[in-house]
Design brief:
The chain is built from 8 helices and 12 strands. The protein is α+β, with helices and mostly antiparallel strands and about 325 residues long. The model has no long low-confidence stretch (mean pLDDT about 90). The structure holds dinuclear copper ion.
Protein backbone atom coordinates (compact mmCIF):
# COMPACT_ATOMS: atom_id res chain seq x y z
CA UNK A 1 0.00 0.00 0.00
CA UNK A 2 1.19 3.50 -0.85
CA UNK A 3 2.08 5.83 2.01
CA UNK A 4 -0.64 8.48 2.40
CA UNK A 5 1.90 11.31 1.92
CA UNK A 6 2.82 10.12 -1.62
CA UNK A 7 -0.81 9.61 -2.49
CA UNK A 8 -1.70 13.14 -1.36
CA UNK A 9 1.09 14.55 -3.50
CA UNK A 10 -0.12 12.52 -6.48
CA UNK A 11 -3.67 13.83 -6.06
CA UNK A 12 -2.37 17.41 -5.69
CA UNK A 13 -0.34 17.04 -8.90
CA UNK A 14 -3.35 15.68 -10.80
CA UNK A 15 -5.56 18.52 -9.53
CA UNK A 16 -2.94 21.10 -10.54
CA UNK A 17 -2.66 19.58 -14.04
CA UNK A 18 -6.45 19.63 -14.38
CA UNK A 19 -6.65 23.28 -13.28
CA UNK A 20 -3.88 24.34 -15.71
CA UNK A 21 -5.57 22.47 -18.59
CA UNK A 22 -8.88 24.12 -17.75
CA UNK A 23 -7.30 27.58 -17.65
CA UNK A 24 -5.59 27.00 -21.00
CA UNK A 25 -8.87 25.87 -22.55
CA UNK A 26 -10.66 28.95 -21.27
CA UNK A 27 -7.80 31.19 -22.43
CA UNK A 28 -8.16 29.66 -25.91
CA UNK A 29 -11.88 30.40 -25.81
CA UNK A 30 -11.26 34.12 -25.43
CA UNK A 31 -9.26 34.45 -28.66
CA UNK A 32 -11.20 35.59 -31.69
CA UNK A 33 -12.20 32.43 -33.49
CA UNK A 34 -13.69 32.45 -37.00
CA UNK A 35 -15.00 28.92 -36.53
CA UNK A 36 -16.59 28.62 -33.12
CA UNK A 37 -20.09 27.69 -32.03
CA UNK A 38 -19.39 29.59 -28.80
CA UNK A 39 -18.84 32.90 -30.61
CA UNK A 40 -22.25 33.35 -32.22
CA UNK A 41 -22.88 36.19 -34.65
CA UNK A 42 -26.52 35.39 -35.33
CA UNK A 43 -29.72 34.78 -33.40
CA UNK A 44 -29.70 31.09 -34.38
CA UNK A 45 -26.10 30.50 -33.31
CA UNK A 46 -26.83 32.44 -30.10
CA UNK A 47 -29.69 30.04 -29.26
CA UNK A 48 -27.44 27.05 -29.95
CA UNK A 49 -24.60 28.50 -27.85
CA UNK A 50 -26.99 29.12 -24.95
CA UNK A 51 -28.21 25.51 -25.24
CA UNK A 52 -24.60 24.36 -25.12
CA UNK A 53 -23.79 26.45 -22.02
CA UNK A 54 -26.92 25.28 -20.18
CA UNK A 55 -26.04 21.64 -20.94
CA UNK A 56 -22.44 22.25 -19.90
CA UNK A 57 -23.45 23.89 -16.60
CA UNK A 58 -26.04 21.27 -15.64
CA UNK A 59 -23.79 18.35 -16.52
CA UNK A 60 -20.75 19.94 -14.86
CA UNK A 61 -22.70 20.20 -11.58
CA UNK A 62 -23.88 16.58 -11.99
CA UNK A 63 -20.30 15.49 -12.65
CA UNK A 64 -18.98 17.20 -9.52
CA UNK A 65 -21.74 15.68 -7.35
CA UNK A 66 -21.17 12.18 -8.77
CA UNK A 67 -17.41 12.46 -8.25
CA UNK A 68 -18.00 13.62 -4.66
CA UNK A 69 -20.10 10.50 -4.06
CA UNK A 70 -17.44 8.32 -5.65
CA UNK A 71 -14.74 9.79 -3.40
CA UNK A 72 -17.01 9.42 -0.39
CA UNK A 73 -17.70 5.77 -1.26
CA UNK A 74 -14.00 4.98 -1.74
CA UNK A 75 -12.90 6.60 1.52
CA UNK A 76 -15.71 5.49 3.80
CA UNK A 77 -15.04 2.22 5.66
CA UNK A 78 -18.00 -0.20 5.52
CA UNK A 79 -19.56 -0.92 8.93
CA UNK A 80 -19.83 -4.65 9.70
CA UNK A 81 -23.65 -4.51 10.08
CA UNK A 82 -24.19 -3.01 6.56
CA UNK A 83 -25.90 -5.20 3.96
CA UNK A 84 -23.65 -5.82 0.89
CA UNK A 85 -26.31 -4.56 -1.57
CA UNK A 86 -26.27 -1.01 -0.11
CA UNK A 87 -29.19 1.41 0.01
CA UNK A 88 -31.51 0.45 -2.90
CA UNK A 89 -33.79 3.47 -2.55
CA UNK A 90 -30.80 5.82 -2.82
CA UNK A 91 -29.62 3.99 -5.96
CA UNK A 92 -33.03 4.27 -7.64
CA UNK A 93 -33.61 7.93 -6.77
CA UNK A 94 -30.15 9.34 -7.48
CA UNK A 95 -29.11 6.79 -10.12
CA UNK A 96 -32.29 6.62 -12.22
CA UNK A 97 -34.94 9.19 -11.25
CA UNK A 98 -32.79 12.32 -10.94
CA UNK A 99 -30.63 11.63 -14.05
CA UNK A 100 -33.85 10.75 -15.94
CA UNK A 101 -35.47 14.08 -15.05
CA UNK A 102 -32.31 16.01 -15.99
CA UNK A 103 -31.87 14.23 -19.34
CA UNK A 104 -35.55 14.54 -20.33
CA UNK A 105 -35.43 18.24 -19.41
CA UNK A 106 -32.37 18.80 -21.59
CA UNK A 107 -33.95 16.78 -24.42
CA UNK A 108 -37.11 18.92 -24.36
CA UNK A 109 -35.02 22.13 -24.29
CA UNK A 110 -32.88 20.95 -27.23
CA UNK A 111 -35.97 19.92 -29.27
CA UNK A 112 -37.56 23.32 -28.56
CA UNK A 113 -34.43 25.04 -29.85
CA UNK A 114 -34.39 22.84 -32.96
CA UNK A 115 -38.05 23.61 -33.75
CA UNK A 116 -37.62 27.35 -33.08
CA UNK A 117 -34.75 27.50 -35.58
CA UNK A 118 -36.63 25.73 -38.37
CA UNK A 119 -37.85 28.69 -40.40
CA UNK A 120 -38.70 29.49 -43.94
CA UNK A 121 -37.21 32.85 -44.80
CA UNK A 122 -37.27 35.17 -47.76
CA UNK A 123 -34.06 36.72 -49.02
CA UNK A 124 -31.36 35.95 -51.53
CA UNK A 125 -31.30 32.30 -52.62
CA UNK A 126 -27.98 30.47 -52.70
CA UNK A 127 -27.53 26.88 -53.85
CA UNK A 128 -24.62 24.97 -52.36
CA UNK A 129 -23.60 21.50 -53.51
CA UNK A 130 -21.04 19.38 -51.70
CA UNK A 131 -18.46 17.56 -53.82
CA UNK A 132 -15.55 15.43 -52.64
CA UNK A 133 -13.94 17.75 -51.34
CA UNK A 134 -15.14 21.21 -52.24
CA UNK A 135 -18.30 23.33 -52.46
CA UNK A 136 -20.12 24.53 -55.56
CA UNK A 137 -21.89 27.83 -54.81
CA UNK A 138 -24.56 29.33 -57.07
CA UNK A 139 -26.70 32.47 -56.99
CA UNK A 140 -29.44 31.39 -59.41
CA UNK A 141 -31.20 34.76 -59.33
CA UNK A 142 -28.03 36.44 -60.57
CA UNK A 143 -26.42 33.83 -62.80
CA UNK A 144 -23.33 33.64 -60.57
CA UNK A 145 -21.35 30.46 -60.02
CA UNK A 146 -18.43 30.30 -57.64
CA UNK A 147 -16.85 27.86 -55.23
CA UNK A 148 -15.73 27.45 -51.64
CA UNK A 149 -16.90 30.93 -50.69
CA UNK A 150 -20.34 32.25 -49.81
CA UNK A 151 -20.99 35.97 -49.79
CA UNK A 152 -24.06 37.11 -47.89
CA UNK A 153 -25.55 40.47 -46.90
CA UNK A 154 -25.44 41.40 -43.20
CA UNK A 155 -28.66 41.49 -41.21
CA UNK A 156 -30.79 39.61 -43.69
CA UNK A 157 -31.66 35.89 -43.64
CA UNK A 158 -30.35 34.06 -46.68
CA UNK A 159 -32.15 31.05 -48.15
CA UNK A 160 -30.01 28.01 -48.86
CA UNK A 161 -30.73 24.97 -50.98
CA UNK A 162 -28.24 22.28 -50.06
CA UNK A 163 -27.45 19.02 -51.79
CA UNK A 164 -24.54 16.65 -52.41
CA UNK A 165 -23.06 15.57 -55.71
CA UNK A 166 -21.55 12.28 -54.59
CA UNK A 167 -21.61 11.16 -50.95
CA UNK A 168 -23.22 12.63 -47.83
CA UNK A 169 -21.63 15.87 -46.64
CA UNK A 170 -22.75 18.24 -43.89
CA UNK A 171 -22.92 22.01 -44.06
CA UNK A 172 -21.81 23.80 -40.91
CA UNK A 173 -20.87 27.39 -40.15
CA UNK A 174 -20.59 27.26 -36.33
CA UNK A 175 -20.69 31.05 -35.82
CA UNK A 176 -23.92 31.36 -37.81
CA UNK A 177 -26.07 28.27 -37.31
CA UNK A 178 -26.19 24.54 -36.58
CA UNK A 179 -25.23 21.87 -39.05
CA UNK A 180 -27.38 20.22 -41.69
CA UNK A 181 -26.65 17.21 -43.88
CA UNK A 182 -26.21 17.48 -47.64
CA UNK A 183 -27.62 14.43 -49.38
CA UNK A 184 -27.15 13.18 -52.94
CA UNK A 185 -30.85 12.67 -53.77
CA UNK A 186 -32.52 15.28 -51.57
CA UNK A 187 -32.51 19.08 -51.49
CA UNK A 188 -32.44 20.41 -47.94
CA UNK A 189 -33.77 23.91 -47.31
CA UNK A 190 -31.83 25.91 -44.76
CA UNK A 191 -31.08 29.50 -43.86
CA UNK A 192 -28.29 31.53 -42.35
CA UNK A 193 -27.93 35.09 -41.20
CA UNK A 194 -25.02 37.19 -39.92
CA UNK A 195 -25.59 40.08 -37.54
CA UNK A 196 -22.34 41.82 -38.39
CA UNK A 197 -19.80 41.94 -41.21
CA UNK A 198 -16.91 39.50 -41.09
CA UNK A 199 -15.42 36.32 -42.47
CA UNK A 200 -16.30 32.99 -40.90
CA UNK A 201 -15.17 29.48 -41.66
CA UNK A 202 -17.54 26.71 -42.62
CA UNK A 203 -16.56 23.09 -42.44
CA UNK A 204 -17.94 19.80 -43.71
CA UNK A 205 -19.27 18.06 -40.61
CA UNK A 206 -19.93 14.57 -41.94
CA UNK A 207 -17.07 12.20 -42.71
CA UNK A 208 -17.03 12.02 -46.50
CA UNK A 209 -13.70 10.42 -47.37
CA UNK A 210 -10.02 11.04 -47.18
CA UNK A 211 -10.04 14.85 -47.37
CA UNK A 212 -13.12 15.43 -45.22
CA UNK A 213 -11.05 17.50 -42.78
CA UNK A 214 -9.86 19.78 -45.62
CA UNK A 215 -13.36 20.45 -46.97
CA UNK A 216 -13.88 23.96 -45.73
CA UNK A 217 -15.21 27.25 -47.05
CA UNK A 218 -15.43 30.92 -46.12
CA UNK A 219 -18.53 32.92 -45.45
CA UNK A 220 -18.05 36.59 -46.18
CA UNK A 221 -20.79 38.75 -44.62
CA UNK A 222 -20.88 42.18 -46.25
CA UNK A 223 -22.92 45.33 -45.58
CA UNK A 224 -25.80 45.48 -48.06
CA UNK A 225 -24.18 48.01 -50.45
CA UNK A 226 -20.93 46.02 -50.58
CA UNK A 227 -22.88 42.82 -51.14
CA UNK A 228 -24.74 44.41 -54.05
CA UNK A 229 -21.41 45.61 -55.47
CA UNK A 230 -19.98 42.09 -55.10
CA UNK A 231 -22.97 40.65 -56.98
CA UNK A 232 -22.61 43.23 -59.76
CA UNK A 233 -18.89 42.46 -60.12
CA UNK A 234 -19.41 38.69 -60.24
CA UNK A 235 -22.08 39.09 -62.90
CA UNK A 236 -19.46 40.53 -65.24
CA UNK A 237 -17.40 38.21 -67.39
CA UNK A 238 -13.76 38.18 -66.36
CA UNK A 239 -11.55 40.42 -68.53
CA UNK A 240 -10.05 38.92 -71.69
CA UNK A 241 -6.25 38.45 -71.53
CA UNK A 242 -4.78 41.95 -71.80
CA UNK A 243 -1.09 41.14 -72.27
CA UNK A 244 1.05 38.56 -74.13
CA UNK A 245 1.78 36.89 -70.76
CA UNK A 246 -1.93 36.47 -69.97
CA UNK A 247 -2.70 35.32 -73.53
CA UNK A 248 0.01 32.71 -73.16
CA UNK A 249 -1.47 31.70 -69.79
CA UNK A 250 -4.89 31.21 -71.33
CA UNK A 251 -3.35 29.09 -74.11
CA UNK A 252 -1.59 26.94 -71.50
CA UNK A 253 -4.94 26.53 -69.70
CA UNK A 254 -6.50 24.96 -72.79
CA UNK A 255 -3.37 23.07 -73.94
CA UNK A 256 -3.16 21.43 -70.51
CA UNK A 257 -6.86 20.47 -70.81
CA UNK A 258 -7.87 22.33 -67.62
CA UNK A 259 -11.17 23.16 -69.37
CA UNK A 260 -12.22 19.49 -69.31
CA UNK A 261 -12.99 19.92 -65.59
CA UNK A 262 -13.30 23.67 -65.05
CA UNK A 263 -15.50 26.49 -66.31
CA UNK A 264 -14.39 30.04 -67.06
CA UNK A 265 -17.41 32.05 -68.15
CA UNK A 266 -16.95 33.80 -71.49
CA UNK A 267 -14.51 31.14 -72.77
CA UNK A 268 -14.98 27.65 -74.18
CA UNK A 269 -14.07 26.17 -70.79
CA UNK A 270 -17.33 24.65 -69.55
CA UNK A 271 -16.15 21.63 -67.48
CA UNK A 272 -18.31 20.78 -64.49
CA UNK A 273 -16.14 18.28 -62.59
CA UNK A 274 -14.09 20.82 -60.67
CA UNK A 275 -14.76 24.26 -59.19
CA UNK A 276 -15.81 27.12 -61.48
CA UNK A 277 -12.78 29.39 -62.05
CA UNK A 278 -14.55 32.42 -63.53
CA UNK A 279 -13.48 34.73 -60.71
CA UNK A 280 -10.72 32.61 -59.14
CA UNK A 281 -8.40 35.61 -58.75
CA UNK A 282 -10.78 37.23 -56.28
CA UNK A 283 -11.16 34.21 -54.00
CA UNK A 284 -9.58 34.00 -50.56
CA UNK A 285 -8.42 30.38 -50.56
CA UNK A 286 -7.54 27.47 -52.81
CA UNK A 287 -8.51 23.81 -52.52
CA UNK A 288 -11.62 24.50 -50.39
CA UNK A 289 -10.03 26.53 -47.62
CA UNK A 290 -6.82 24.49 -47.54
CA UNK A 291 -4.32 27.26 -48.42
CA UNK A 292 -4.44 31.01 -49.02
CA UNK A 293 -4.91 32.08 -52.62
CA UNK A 294 -1.37 33.23 -53.44
CA UNK A 295 0.66 32.84 -56.64
CA UNK A 296 3.04 30.37 -54.98
CA UNK A 297 0.20 28.22 -53.63
CA UNK A 298 -1.61 28.32 -56.96
CA UNK A 299 1.54 27.20 -58.81
CA UNK A 300 2.12 24.40 -56.32
CA UNK A 301 -1.54 23.39 -56.50
CA UNK A 302 -1.42 23.13 -60.31
CA UNK A 303 1.91 21.27 -60.38
CA UNK A 304 1.48 18.88 -57.45
CA UNK A 305 -2.02 19.10 -55.99
CA UNK A 306 -1.61 15.76 -54.21
CA UNK A 307 1.12 17.16 -51.98
CA UNK A 308 -1.29 19.86 -50.72
CA UNK A 309 -4.42 17.73 -50.42
CA UNK A 310 -3.65 14.02 -50.85
CA UNK A 311 -6.41 12.04 -52.53
CA UNK A 312 -8.15 15.01 -54.14
CA UNK A 313 -9.51 14.69 -57.69
CA UNK A 314 -7.16 17.20 -59.33
CA UNK A 315 -4.47 15.53 -61.45
CA UNK A 316 -0.89 16.86 -61.40
CA UNK A 317 0.02 19.12 -64.34
CA UNK A 318 3.77 19.15 -64.99
CA UNK A 319 4.52 22.41 -66.82
CA UNK A 320 7.66 24.31 -67.77
CA UNK A 321 8.32 27.15 -65.32
CA UNK A 322 7.44 29.87 -67.87
CA UNK A 323 4.19 28.17 -68.84
CA UNK A 324 3.28 27.64 -65.21
CA UNK A 325 3.95 31.29 -64.35
CA UNK A 326 1.87 32.46 -67.31
CA UNK A 327 -0.98 30.16 -66.30
CA UNK A 328 -0.85 31.41 -62.70
CA UNK A 329 -0.88 35.04 -63.92
CA UNK A 330 -3.86 34.32 -66.17
CA UNK A 331 -5.83 32.59 -63.40
CA UNK A 332 -5.04 35.42 -60.98
CA UNK A 333 -6.31 37.92 -63.53
CA UNK A 334 -9.76 36.28 -63.42
CA UNK A 335 -11.55 38.65 -61.06
CU1 LIG B 1 -17.61 16.57 -47.08
CU2 LIG B 1 -16.94 15.70 -44.99
Amino acid sequence: MKPPEAERRRIARAAAALAVTGLLLFAACHRHHPQSALHPVSEAAEAIATLWWVMFAVLAVAFVIVMAFVLFAIRRPRTPTEAPGGNMRFVIVSGIVIPGVILVGLLVYSLQTTVALRRSVTGPLIEVTGFQWWWDVRYPGHGIVTANEIHIPVGQPVRLKLRAHDVVHSFWIPNLHGKIDMLPEVVNDFWIEADRPGIWRGQCAEFCGRQHALMAFKVVALPRDQFDAWIAERQQQPPAPASPELTRGQKVFFDAACHICHTIRGTRAVGRLGPDLTHLGSRLTLAAGTVDNTAAHLAAWIREPQTIKPGNRMPPTPLEADDLNALVSYLQSLR
